[in-house]
Amino acid sequence: MLTSPKVLWITGLSGAGKTTIARATQEILRSKGVCTVLLDGDQVRNVVRDETCGHDRANRLKNAYRISRLAKLIAEQGLVVIVATMSLFHEIHDWNRKNLPRYFEIYLKVDLETLQKRDPKGLYHKASRGKESNIVGVHLDIEEPLHPDLVIENNENLEDVSVIVELIVAH
């Protein structure tokens, strides 16, 4: 069981299930008495409210570093940090491995067809109509993690995430 500081970094494209799986993981860990903090990329961006930080590659990288440094700060205070963020940059994954305590990277790999069907934010639909740009995996290239600790092919229905969460908690 996780009892010491650790960072669980859940990454994947929009609609891959990052937030759903992160919340379920947090719920199970808390039920086992583990103190956790969940950092969701969208929520961090909303809280910081940096009006100059857009969604182009450079600004996405800037925000990813912001999330990494925040995760480090919290983990160094003795908590397990669960991060749900796209942040698909090799440079971020490398920085995390060097700087985050007990870093564990989970890559949710989902094919584009499944992502387009799920599309919880309507991003892929807007992109297909030319109403949205800077969509990672459509307009912006992704850098899939080179050495994730766990890869989950998540093309199935997300109604029951318990199997995925158990894989994460077991590590």
Describe the structure.
- The chain has 171 residues and is an alpha/beta fold.
- It has helices spanning 18-31, 41-48, 57-75, 90-99, 112-118, 123-128, 162-170; strands at residues 6-11, 36-40, 80-84, 103-109, 150-153.
- Strands 2-3-1-4-5 form a five-stranded parallel sheet, sandwiched between helices.
- It is built from seven helices and five strands.
- The chain has a single domain, classed as 3-Layer(aba) Sandwich (Rossmann fold).
- It is 43% helix and 16% strand.
CATH class: Alpha Beta
Tell me, briefly, the overall form.
globular
For the largest beta sheet, what order do the strands appear in spatially?
A: 2-3-1-4-5
Main sheet makeup = 5 strands, parallel
Distance between the termini: 8 Å
Average pLDDT metric: 83
Task: Kindly estimate the percentage of residues that lie in beta strands according to DSSP.
Answer: 15-25%
Briefly note the CATH topology name.
Rossmann fold
Helix content: 40-55%
Identify the CATH homologous superfamily: P-loop containing nucleotide triphosphate hydrolases
Low-confidence stretches: none
**CATH architecture verdict:** 3-Layer(aba) Sandwich
Element pattern in H and E: EHEHHEHEHHEH
Number of domains: 1
How many helical stretches?
Answer: 7
